[in-house]
Amino acid sequence: MRRRLSPTSGFGAVVAMAGVGFAPMLASAQVPMPVSFESVQALPRRAPDREYPYGDSPSQRVRVWLAGSPTAPAPVVVLLHGGCWLSQYGVDHIEPLASALASEGFAVWAPEYRRIGEPGGGWPGTLEDVASAIDLLRSEDTGLDLERVVFVGHSAGGHLALWAAARGAFDPTHPQYRAAPLVPRGVIGLASITDLAAYAALGSGCPTMVAQLLGGTPDTQAARYLAASPAALPHPVPVVLIQGARDAIVPPSQARALPWARVRLVEGAEHFDVIHPGTVAFPMLLEELRSLTSARPSGGSPSAPPPR
Description:
By secondary structure, the protein is an alpha/beta fold. The protein has 9 helices and 8 strands.
């Protein structure tokens, strides 16, 4: 039975140039690539329409953007932010993309979750938070079209989106198994981390956070890597990866780690170009979202690994 939840009152502070008259910078502007993280942070965004808690931590919240001028129940994008799973990078930097997607007719469900550096972050809290935030969507009565849900994630959030999309095929022995999780129409990774062991082996920077996330290396925590890495999991829904050809933070080899995925390589793009609504990557994202939400539900590729 679905229950009505009350949005948290008082939420809706404008982060930058939000509110009445918001007009996102769309891909037709042809923003030159590459773009920096700082330029993404500085983009205008619309304030979220609602916020819902799913736990007691300040990080256990979901921000919601309703579709602009919907004529029918809107399809839903579950949008998971990246940031190396670290607490200093939050959902705020993905708000310009959320605003742009809402202006294109999608409702956006953007979870915050506990991350490395805060109590409960890492294994298993980060993964459990993502699962809880997504499953809350079915308990919330807003008139959204729950038959047309697509998961989208960037970087470390791409890892989480791919992991979450696989939950419908988890074996009951999987440590994060839950009966009847929300299963999307498909999942889209934007510069996604797909193979945790291979990514950790890359060395300095964000790859060093994999061991922090899982509490050890592939040698010391082999079972956790198998339970958390998209490359080791079944994929019961279509997978699309939009990848910058010049991305040095999450290199194209990560997109090649999922041979059953549809890969769209963005020439000239680096890591943050794929979440900027003004680059050529944004119409690619819209095209894939519209394809997935208009098509009949279908299973994933038969080449995906067997359930674990």
